[in-house]
Amino acid sequence: MKFAISLFFGLVLIATCAYAVPVLTGAVPSNSGFIKGAVNFSVNVSGAGTDTNSVILFIISKDAKDQGEDWDNYTLSCISVGDNSWTCIRSLSFGIVGSNTQELFYFEARDNSGNAATLGSRSTPISITLDRSMPTLYFSAPQNNSYI
User: Fold this and answer.
1) pLDDT per position as a tens digit, 88-137
2) Do 25 and 119 form a contact (C-beta atoms < 8 A)?
3) Phi/psi at 46 (nearest 5 deg)?
């Protein structure tokens, strides 16, 4: 009888571990940051049973979200960094977006059973601001034949 009970709890434990929802950490770029040009979005994902082909970046400009538009989504490429641990990356370019545009995003990962976990969400997204303004140079004490 003790063996049967131990076996039952062992199987429950294995099933629970096999279907654990992924854990997402370390979003890049960081919340409230400023970005320029092409941006590498990345997130660390861990957990047994993680489906590394279903790690997704959801992104939308704040203006588009306010207008009720749909979120864009991009599948990330994942690289193993240890046992049941991956870094997932996607590069995006913001070539046609104006300066000081606020972008909202979040990450989603699923396990092999379809259970989802997110870092950020539609209701509480991570935000970044695109910085397109050129720096201002002040040449206060130029030397002869100097260049910028």
Assistant:
1) 999 998 866 666 789 999 999 999 999 999 999 999 999 999 876 656 66
2) yes
3) -140, 155
The Cα 65–Cα 105 span in angstroms is: 11
| pTM for this predicted structure | 0.76
The helix or strand, by DSSP H or E, that contains position 16, with its residue range, turns out to be helix 2-18
Q: Tokens at residue 117, please?
A: 């976990």
Bin 140: left if φ > 0, else alpha if -120 < ψ < 50, else beta: alpha
Distance CA 39, CA 130 (A): 10
> 71, 80 in Cβ contact below 8 A?
no
Helix (H, G, I), strand (E, B) or coil at 6: helix
How is residue 60 written in tokens?
A: 């939308």
Residue whose tokens read 């950020």: 120
Q: Alpha-carbon distance 31 to 42, whole Å? A: 13
Q: What domains can be seen in the chain, in order of their start residue?
A: 17-130 (2.60.40.10)
